[in-house]
Design a protein that fits this description.
The chain is an alpha/beta fold. The protein has two domains: 71 residues, no CATH class; 100 residues, RlpA-like domain (Barwin-like endoglucanases). The protein is built from six helices and six strands; from the N terminus they run H-H-H-H-H-E-E-E-E-E-H-E. It has a six-stranded mixed β-barrel. The longest helix is centred in the N-terminal third of the chain and has 21 residues. About 4% of the residues have low confidence.
Length: 204
């Protein structure tokens, strides 16, 4: 009596292909042949491969399915771990250069309180703000009093000073933080980091 080979139906073949695809993907990931970026950005696709491998378990040997699922679970668990130096080098951003300037600082007079600043704000002597001739508006600047070492961080919201060799005009609150002498000037160091330049309202 002749024997006939029974070929698996289309559904069986599809499950076999799904299982084989999941196993190949797991091996590639385990050997580091797939970039870390793919692991992170394609988690949904990897999870789908796991589900297909589980569905194929009813037709094929459990040890093979367990191996495939274990490998995929391992690489998914380590997908966000900082073990890939290539990915880490991309994620790192270079430190912003610090600009330093040394010169004389003065304090706003009481007559400027409530007046409009160069960026359109209303000047408040109780806020930690300052005027500088060239720094972009909203720049955060760390001011150090070189006479006593005291420091304060201010936000640039005005232009000036325009007297002598002065490099910055501080609000009353900022001057108090630096323990500046009343109606006097002091030598300071200004440290700033690069920021996105905004249009100067007074230059439009």
């Amino acid at each position: 009596m002749p024997t006939h080979t029974v070929l698996p139906n289309a559904s069986t073949w599809q499950r076999f292909v799904d299982l084989l695809d999941a196993l190949i993907t797991a091996v590639k990931l385990a050997l580091g042949l797939v970039p870390m970026r793919y692991r992170i950005n394609n988690r949904a696709d990897l999870h789908r491969k796991i589900r297909r491998a589980i569905a194929a378990a009813g037709l094929f040997q459990w040890p093979l399915c367990i191996l495939c699922i274990s490998l995929l679970g391992f690489v998914l668990a380590s997908g966000c771990s900082p073990t890939n130096t290539e990915n880490n080098s991309v994620a790192k951003t270079p430190a912003q250069p610090v600009k330093k300037e040394v010169g004389a600082a003065s304090c706003y007079g009481p007559g400027f309180h409530g007046k409009e600043t160069a960026n359109g704000e209303t000047f408040d002597q109780k806020e930690l703000t300052a005027a500088h001739p060239t720094l972009p508006m909203d720049t955060k600047a760390k001011i150090t009093n070189l006479e006593n070492g005291k420091k304060v961080e201010v936000r640039i919201n005005d232009r000036g000073p325009f007297i002598g060799n002065r490099v910055i005009d501080l609000s009353k609150a900022a001057a108090k933080k630096l323990d500046m002498q009343k109606d006097g000037t002091t030598e300071v160091k200004i440290e700033t980091k690069a920021v996105k330049t905004k249009p100067d309202p007074k230059t439009k």
